[in-house]
Amino acid sequence: MDDLSATPSRPRDMLVWKHAAASLRAGIPTALLCVVRSEGSSPGRQGFKMSVTATGLAGSIGGGIMEHKLVELVRARLREGDYTPEIRRQVHRAHARSDRSGMICSGEQEILLLPLRAEYLPSLEACKRALRQSGGFRWAVTADSGPRVVADTDVTAPLSRYQPGENWQYEEKLGFRDQLTIVGGGHVSLALSRTLSTLDFDITVLDDRPALHTHLLNPYAHHKRTVPYDKLAPEVPEGPHQYVVIMTVGYRTDAVALRQLLHHQVRYLGVLGSSNKITHLLQELRAAGTDEAVLSRIHAPIGLPIHSRTPEEIAISIAAEIIRVRNTPESE
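The structure assignment produced for this chain is given below.
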C-alpha cells in the first residue's frame, strides 16, 4: 500500500547540511567529515559525508571502526578548540605501513576533517537552499578557505573534483547525482518510483493519459507531466547521468515511445515487457533498419531475472539492474 501522504525525496546530503547548519546556529561546535577521494573496496565513496557534534551525528563516511575513530578524533579537536582543517588518508589493509584505518577491505580513502566556524553558517544555509532546487550549484572548499556555494555553469564537469597536496581543493555538485525518467504512470511505475526514491534519484514520470490516478497521485515523483508519446524526445534529457524506463500501457505505445528515444544518449534505456513482446518489438525495429549497435544499448526485457510477479517485485528487479549499471564504470 502506497503512502499517499509521502513527499518526493530530498538528496541524501540534505540531512547532513541541515544538522550542521542547525548545530552551528545554536552555537554548538560542529565539524564536517567528507570523503574527498576513494578507490578500491572502500566502504565510503567520494562525496560521502557526515556532520558531527559532541552528542549528535548525521550522515556517514562509510561506517565501521574507521568512522568511529575519525568521529572521536574530530570531537576531541572541537573540545580543544582546534579548528584547523585536515585531509586524512585511510588505508584499509591490515599490513599497510602507514595510515591504517583498522579495516581490511583493501581500498583507500582520503577524508576531509573540517571543523565549522560560525562564519560558515551562510554557506551551509546556501547549501540547503541549493539542495531544494533542481541542480545548478556546487559547493567548494580549499585548504585556506571555508565552504562556499558557486554556480554550476559547466555541464560537462565531473560530479566532484579533488586536487590533493598542501593547497588541496575539493568541489562537488549539489543535488541529485542521477535523474530517472519513467515513461508510463501505471502501477509498476508507482512501485518503481517508491523504490528508487530511496536511492538518490531525481524522478520524473510521464504519461499520455491526463486523468490516470496512479500518475496523478504518485507522491514519490519530483516531476509529473502529461505528454503525447509521439512528442516524447524533447521531454527526456540526455547525458551520462540520465536513466530512462519505458513502461506504458501496452505494446503499441511502448513502440512509439522507444522510437522517440532510440538515439538518445543516456546511461540506461530499458523497456518493460515479456520476452515475446520484446522479441517482436526488436524484430520490428530491425525490419525498419535500426542499427544493431543502437538496439544493443536497450535493456529488455528490463530488470534482473528474479521471477518477479507483483509490481513491487518487478520494481525491485528493475532497481537492481539500474544500480548495477550505475555502479559499473562505463569503460567496462
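Interim note for the steering committee: Residues 64-80 form the longest helix (17 residues). The radius of gyration is 22 Å.
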